[in-house]
């Protein structure tokens, strides 16, 4: 018997642990499956390496590419999915590596850690490659390298939209994240979203390419529109939210306002590679490289300031001692090699903050109301039907105190109230992807004949913007107790009201817009009504 009791206790403990975890916020899956080398972009133009002195001493890094001389290549991603997951319409989290557009790949340890950890939270994730190669000796030509990355990031978004049903994902919940150059890609995806915003250097232009002993001017072809390179060009490559880790933006004026997608940024003020403010990237090494010429970029603090001023949805986490690897433990050098060697360890605050931001801004079911009787008299009918105003494909979990659920169909529930008193009906929505919304708690007063306030309650104006006027026909009542609840059942006002002339006045000016429940009580007698604040 003792053995059975111990086993039962263990099962209950494990069950409570599982239920305490929440999909998309916590790692609810122990394992993920990985599909490697998935081609998402076919035959895209890649500039050839330019060689030269600096390319030689930098072990062949493409820092002097020939924008005028290209070849075609394919791009690949590794896809991670929660092992054993049965959900459909899951959100997607795409991660882009860092490396200044001249080095790096999707196998970096920090990138894989981000992708795997988010997959364990219930996302379908991907670590992607994009085209490398920049001309660091020509400010205008350098912009073309960033634009290539932006096009490739959008191509990855389009791949998931094109394969949404096969992969069991939601094409309207695709998020793009990246570190350093990958952060540039994600921020540009959010704000550089119209062809008119493209830098002039991405169109047909000329530039002077410098070789070993000579330089020559070349005509450069138009790089095409944002979604004109790669596959699935008929789809939109803009993500639904972005995350930037030490990234930057090329033009602050691209931040427009409330219609921009939600943006989450992490940046440290001691970043020596990508400026926290407004500077040329790699400013610390530029004096050491003759002819080094990159455009000014705008880091996290500048993007946050502009977004705040324009009312664009954003969240900014600012640090002062994390360096360029704002998301990885250790100094910049150790973080870099740890990332390359797949030894990097993420700061413990990064993943929870990413998860919470995406959950709050994109995944959590929107606020809703519940309609139905909030005052029930046992002497009349004690069976009432309530309706939750949720999305058509959402599911609702109902809970009731002081009554019994007798029927539930879709977003409606029928409750049999059987006990006099103040009770609560709660509704919790779940989207089809499993994301849980906030509970709405509706106070329900169940009365027998002895509890009823023998007065007619009149409230005007209703809806009300400033003062709700309450009039009781019983002239001898000069003071009442008033309690106001919001739609979640939270008390937002409680106090006594003194009669002013023939009525009681309740100031509702500071209440947020919405629906409210008010209880008027005189001794043991009370009434419940609803009103709207606009």
Low-confidence stretches: 1-19
Rg over alpha carbons? 30 Å
Share of helical residues = 10-25%
Mean pLDDT score, rounded? 88
CATH architecture of the largest domain: 3-Layer(aba) Sandwich
Q: How far is the first residue's CA from the last residue's CA?
A: 62 Å
Number of domains: 3
Number of helices: 9
> For the largest beta sheet, what order do the strands appear in spatially?
1-2-4-3-5-8-9-12
**Most strands sheet:** 8 strands, mixed
> What is the assigned CATH homologous superfamily of the largest domain?
Alpha/Beta hydrolase fold, catalytic domain
What class would the helix/strand composition place it in?
Answer: alpha+beta
Kindly report the CATH topology of the largest domain: Rossmann fold
The total strand number stands at 27
CATH domain class of the largest domain: Alpha Beta
Assess the beta-strand content as a share of residues: 25-35%
Walk me through what this model shows:
By secondary structure, the protein is α+β, with helices and mostly antiparallel strands. The protein has three domains: 22-363, Alpha/Beta hydrolase fold, catalytic domain (Rossmann fold, 3-Layer(aba) Sandwich), CATH 3.40.50.1820; 365-450, Immunoglobulin-like (Sandwich), CATH 2.60.40.10; 453-534, Immunoglobulin-like, CATH 2.60.40. 20% of the residues lie in helices and 35% in strands. The protein contains nine helices and 27 strands. Strands 1-2-4-3-5-8-9-12 form an eight-stranded mixed β-sheet, sandwiched between helices. A four-stranded antiparallel β-sheet has the order 13-15-18-17, with no helix packed on it. The longest helix has 24 residues, at 139-162. 41% of the residues are buried. Mean pLDDT is 88; it is low at 1-19. InterPro entries: AB_hydrolase_fold, BD-FAE-like_dom, GDXG_lipolytic_enzyme, Secre_tail. Residues 459-528 form the Secretion system C-terminal sorting domain. Residues 1-20 form the signal peptide. Pfam families: BD-FAE, Por_Secre_tail. Keywords: Hydrolase, Signal.
